[in-house]
Inverse folding.
């Protein structure tokens, strides 16, 4: 899918990958962009700064009514949604000792938000016979997140849900992509490093840390080719192949890596 003339909704748009996507989509000639985040001032400022028609909306992606209202705003303003970027996400740095509230919050932001987006936007897309769901899932959803059990588990679930959506609706004009970057220079990664999270340290040391703009470039290319897996870090595909070819060897290698950061 080319983005010229398209209407796009982006969650988690106040910074990092979300902001980079908004700027790149505007440069590609999007007809309209709806930017959502908990930080209303930030998305309104971003909307005013883009060279296309855009609007900022405060949305809590863990509240289904908020997500439904977000889609309604887009439909009322532009008449359709061509691409819905379900981009909001959180890390925790927790293991099995993480309390239930940490696990629940991870499920709500990293998984249920994708569900709420699909419920809200798919009816109008299916009616038109066309639409695109871009879901930010992370390389952790294909591999793992050392030191962050809630993030690893929920990102695996996000990839699984994206697969299900593609299988279920792919023959009805709905395209689905799972965006799975590794290290990206975002507040999420920097905050994790500042907090001393093992997962953030491993991510930062495992390969190149890309800029959000690099990720946006990969997204535009992936959408144009309508690829299910969008991998800004090409090495993630290699790691995934190693994992599937010899899971035991891969797990042993991951244990050695983890030990280097925890011993």
């Amino acid at each position: 899918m080319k983005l010229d003339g398209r209407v796009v909704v982006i969650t988690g748009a106040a910074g990092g990958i979300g902001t980079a996507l908004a700027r790149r989509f505007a440069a590609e000639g999007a007809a309209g962009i709806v930017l959502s985040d908990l930080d209303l001032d930030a998305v309104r400022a971003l909307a005013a700064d883009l060279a296309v028609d855009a609007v900022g909306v405060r949305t809590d992606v863990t509240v289904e009514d908020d997500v439904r209202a977000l889609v309604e705003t887009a439909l009322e303003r532009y008449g359709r949604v061509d691409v819905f970027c379900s981009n909001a996400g959180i890390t925790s740095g927790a293991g099995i000792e993480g309390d239930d509230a940490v696990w629940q919050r991870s499920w709500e932001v990293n998984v249920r938000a994708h569900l709420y987006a699909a419920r809200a936007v798919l009816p109008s897309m299916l009616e038109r016979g066309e639409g695109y769901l871009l879901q930010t899932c992370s390389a952790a959803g294909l591999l793992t997140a050392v030191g962050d059990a809630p993030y690893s588990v929920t990102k695996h679930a996000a990839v699984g849900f994206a697969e299900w959506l593609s299988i279920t609706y792919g023959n009805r004009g709905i395209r689905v992509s799972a965006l799975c970057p590794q290290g990206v220079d975002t507040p999420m990664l920097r905050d994790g490093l500042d907090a001393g999270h093992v997962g953030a340290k491993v991510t930062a040391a495992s390969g190149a840390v890309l800029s959000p703009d690099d990720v946006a470039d990969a997204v535009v290319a992936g959408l144009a080719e309508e690829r299910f897996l969008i991998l800004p870090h090409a090495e993630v595909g290699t790691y995934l192949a190693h994992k599937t070819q010899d899971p035991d060897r891969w797990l042993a290698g991951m244990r050695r890596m983890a030990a280097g950061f925890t011993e």
